[in-house]
Amino acid sequence: MQVNIAESWKHILQEEFDKPYFIELANFVKSEYQNYTCYPKGSAIFSAFDYCEFNDVKVVIIGQDPYHGVGQANGLCFSVHDGIAHPPSLINIFKEIETDVTIPYPKSGDLSRWAQQGVLLLNATLTVRAHEAGSHQNKGWEQFTDAVISKISEHKKDVVFLLWGGYAKKKGRKIDTSKHTVLQSGHPSPLSANRGYWFGNKHFSQTNSILEEKNITPIQW
How far, in Å, CA of 182 to CA of 188, rounded? Predict the structure, then answer.
């Protein structure tokens, strides 16, 4: 089956695309998009891979599933297009960056600027039905994104994985911590952040310190 994804990833992931579970998943997604409003738009489903080539990956941030409100999801976890109001989790991410690395709160919620620097913004589930959070979970996406994490862990070294919340931490089981760094904290959602599990994690400054120690260009958050 042909998947519209960046060539560097196609080479790494082709065996996944040929597996029965992925063919079933592709058929499910096609049917959902034909019969319901789904997000992100079809051409943006694999945007995380299009903006961040495999060879360029130096940081991985794992989200759960895409935003399910009108115009929000753009294929990058936690990210929204310019002109879209920042969702609560993204607001808390930017607030932590403000205090951690003293960067002013940005007008744009489009995180493609991170992706282009080597931050893979990967949702565990890449599609969702409008206004129905989690509606495309347990259809095969999780198996696919587990494979993505495993391939990064296997074929690369010195990648920093940021695991925010229990769901992301479970995905972290695929990571070889002898080759890579894993930073964990609570989720940036208000429920978690307001309980003290998010603010002050300093993941953004820590990530850059780790990258610099490995002589890797840090991220301009």
Answer: 17
